[in-house]
Amino acid sequence: MTLAAPAGTSRSLVFDPTWRSFSSTQGGLVVGHLLDVAAELTGAAPRAVTAHLLAGVVPDVEAVVTAAADRTGRTGSVRSELRQDGAVRAVAQVLTSAVASSPTTEHSPRDVLPRLEDGEPFALPRDYVPVAEHTEIRALGTSRPLGGGHEPRLHAWVRIGGELPPLVQLGVLLDALPPSLFAVRTSPASMPTVELSAHLTAAAPPTGAWVRVDQRTVWQDAEVAVDEVELRALDGSPVALGRQTRRLLAG
């Protein structure tokens, strides 16, 4: 017997300008809504996502987020889209699992997790990233954005303010820190995210939770840089592993 896929679902959104990063709405917030609408459609937990951010999402202009299931059941696949002014601005393929969550087992040793109190309060410049209004950051280690360091790595505890649903918040956390290349620069540059992929544990952190974000650039060429990010909860349990492709714009 073949089960019919659930009908598609949609929601209308208008993003506040305070969620802007440089010129457009933060990519992680967009991906978070693509995840959340897929979960709403299927009632199942997203376990992986591959999103392409095709064009900037403009604040204060209506956007429509839709989801349609390609497959449902124990393992499902959902295509989510965000359209604005009739054009597709972002698209994602979301893998879902209808199985109840279970404890996560890791198969490689992990470093001792730094304590929340080890972090140094740090504020991102709101002139460039107004989304900083919604983030609380406690930086770890010596690397800082625009610090002219030797390693393209940023490491911090991060908490997102407001009442975002957990999956939307998770998208924001995956993209919460600036490009890791900022750690070796002394001046800002536009490096928009054009692709974001992530593998998620079964349960997203609750709204307002502190999450450790450890992000580094794994390689770059003249056109793009690839950042890798690991998210962990306060108790050290894994939350998500992500990678994103950033365009390196001239200048």
How would you summarize this macromolecular structure in one to three sentences?
This protein has 251 residues and is mostly beta strands.
Identify the strand order in the major beta sheet: 1-5-6-7-4-11-14-13-12-10-9-8
- CATH C-level name: Mainly Beta
Structural class: mainly beta
- Identify the CATH architecture: Beta Barrel
The biggest beta sheet, please? 12 strands, antiparallel
Number of domains: 1
By CATH, the topology is Porin
The number of E-state strands comes to: 14
CATH superfamily assignment?
A: Acyl-CoA thioesterase, double hotdog domain
Rg measurement, Å = 18 Å
General form: globular
- Tell me what portion of residues adopts beta-strand conformation: 35-45%
Measured as a percent range, the helix fraction is under 10%
The average pLDDT score comes to 93
Can you tell me about this structure?
- With about 250 residues, the chain is mainly beta.
- The chain has a single domain (about 10-100, about 115-245), classed as Porin (Beta Barrel), CATH 2.40.160.210.
- Helix content is about 10%, strand content about 40%.
- It is built from two helices and 14 strands.
- It has helices spanning about 25-40, 165-175; strands spanning about 10-15, 20, 25, 45-55, 65-70, 75-85, 85-95, 120, 135-140, 155-160, 195-200, 210-220, 225-235, 240-245.
- The protein has a twelve-stranded antiparallel β-sheet with strand order 1-5-6-7-4-11-14-13-12-10-9-8.
- A hairpin with a 4-residue loop joins strand 13 (about 225-235) and strand 14.
- Helix 1 packs antiparallel against helix 2.
- It is globular, with a radius of gyration of 18 Å.
- The chain starts with 8 loop residues before the first strand and ends with a strand.
- The model has no long low-confidence stretch (mean pLDDT about 95).
